[in-house]
Amino acid sequence: MSDNILKFFNIVNSIFSAIIVGISELFSGQRVLFFGYLILNVVDFITGTIKARITKTESSSKGLTGIIKKVGYWILILITFLASYMLSNLGDLININIEFVVLFGWFTLGCLIINEFRSILENLSELGIKLPDFLIKGLEVIQHIIDKKTEEIDKQKDDENK
């Protein structure tokens, strides 16, 4: 029974991913980021499944939970881009400069890309694959830069509102 549920969610995930890739066409030059994130989702799922089989911790409920989380991430991306688009247009309509909200979706996507990379590296590491230190440290630096830039934008907007 749980295998049927897992198959169902695989189908739902595939359909939802195809929809997201279609939507990403709207972002023309940036579609590689969305497609790249989709590839990272698939690679993370595969490396996680291999790790679970080798470590004998594989279960349908863990797989289902992983798939649900991946779908949830795509929903998060959709919501943040939709919200940023809507709020930006609303700001234009009421003549308030809130252009910074267009960054919501991009920052969210950036953080999720980093998380997928980290998860894949963690899976590979647990499989006994030696990872170069620069990969792990590099992802930490990139995450720090994104967090710092977000804080700077928040502070700038707070200063403008005073």
Structure description:
- The chain is an all-alpha fold and 162 residues long.
- The chain has one domain (2-161).
- Helix content is 83%, strand content 0%.
- It has helices spanning 2-24, 31-54, 60-93, 103-126, 133-161.
- Helix 1 (2-24) packs antiparallel against helix 2 and helix 2 (31-54) runs parallel beside helix 4.
- It is globular.
- The mean pLDDT is 84.
SSE inventory with pairings:
Blueprint: H1 2-24, H2 31-54, H3 60-93, H4 103-126, H5 133-161
Determine the mean pLDDT.
84
Helix-strand category: mainly alpha
The biggest beta sheet is recorded as:
none
Give helix % range: over 70%
* Percentage of residues in strands: under 5%
Give the uncertain stretches in residue-range form. Answer: none
Shape: globular
Distance between the termini: 58 Å
Please, how many domains?
1
Radius of gyration: 19 Å
The ordered H/E elements are HHHHH
Question: Count of helical segments?
Answer: 5
- Number of DSSP strand runs: 0
Q: Characteristics of this structure?
A:
mainly alpha; single chain; 0% strand; 162 residues
